[in-house]
């Protein structure tokens, strides 16, 4: 009413004043509705941002907190992949929501964070240059000619999926008119004579099946997407023939491994198909690895057997003598004594206390973890030392800690009830104490069995893809090929590149030169 009275005072015509007042009221009502709508949207945006912020904080706690330690190594890797993707998505949604919905607000200055910067892309990769010149070489301000003063260079990593192509070999034939003979360049020997597959394709199949753990039907599908028909039966034939061709290399690798004085051993179960019954039974993939502290090239060899009998370890090692790092599996016990020295895994002893403390915080388990952690701190400092220097370090620092740990375990054992988790963890360490502490007497001995467990882990993850082994022959073939590819990886070689080169040389390689084909990096002479 006040607005209408003010308008009538200013405007003599009452009808005009009423019309103007009506329009003003209409606009004010619309403005109130718009203001209420924006206020509702703002509250919704703030609620969503708050929810995303809380989700991001929760994801970060899962990423960096102790909860992830409750997972085993394989599950943790898969969990970490998903977690990284979720964090990135939450950050992007939060940034977009803030930019689209939140009103501009004065930013609170924050101290600059020190960043390591993006990791440089590998120098050995080929570079494809794309030059981006400005649309005009004249200045947009004054029209004069521009002068080059430098370049801004950025790089992006790209990949080309499996690209199939054909090698066409043309051998002209020449005839002699005088003697009516015909000659042509000879066909070089191949690992599969008369086959349509070049060594690059064969290597792609082997690496895909035995390193990337892709069943042949998936490789068949990948080829089909590239417009190439590769029948599964053909792929299977190639795998079988290559397994035979590569078997001597795996045998030679095992011979060289048995020349080492210190070995690791472990085993993992796999399922083997029984075609007659349509069911599977348990078989085992045994793994043997050279000592990671050795100066020679690392070697890992897999041995497929249909059971977990200790006889398989005795058959593989033969008359080998040296120090053998194993877990507490009874199948190895018969080896110890006649020239084979037992080394026990400190990581296994630690794991029992760790699992107890994770299930329920326990002061005794925590004390054990602290004491064992101090031993590993010494190992980290001695990792790059020579054998002699590491022996001195262990004798000076590790031996006193081990003696103190042993005395503490013996003193603590009577204070805990029999049959409990703590009692079992302490008993495990006390029962194997001589073998556990033996590493500290020599700078060359390993503290745990982690190197062979790391070597066998990709197989454990892969068997979730291929589920079972089709036959004992297939298991032995897989073990031989995986031995070569895993050893190539340990030596810092590209397994696919090594395999391509080896398949080219293998048909003409003499038996006495077989060592030149092994995936080992030899020290420079």
The count of β-strands is 7
- Percentage of residues in helical conformation: 40-55%
Give the terminus-to-terminus CA distance: 103 Å
Mean pLDDT: 83
Rounded Rg: 35 Å
Order of secondary-structure elements: HHHEEHHHEEEHEEHHHHHHHH
Major beta sheet summary: 5 strands, mixed
- As laid out across the biggest beta sheet, the strand order is 5-4-3-6-7
- How many helix segments? 15
Contiguous uncertain segments of 5+ residues: 66-72, 104-108
The percentage of residues in β strands lies in: 5-15%
> How would you sum up the global shape?
extended
What structural class is derived from the secondary structure elements? alpha/beta
Describe the structure in your own words.
Among the domains are: 1-61 and 90-98; 244-517, no CATH class. With 525 residues, it is α/β, with parallel strands linked by helices. It has helices at residues 2-10, 14-64, 73-101, 199-210, 216-225, 232-257, 310-317, 346-359, 363-382, 387-412, 421-431, 433-437, 450-466, 472-490, 495-505; strands at 174-175, 182-183, 262-274, 279-290, 300-305, 322-326, 340-344. It is extended and about 120 Å long. It has a five-stranded mixed β-sheet, sandwiched between helices. The termini are far apart.
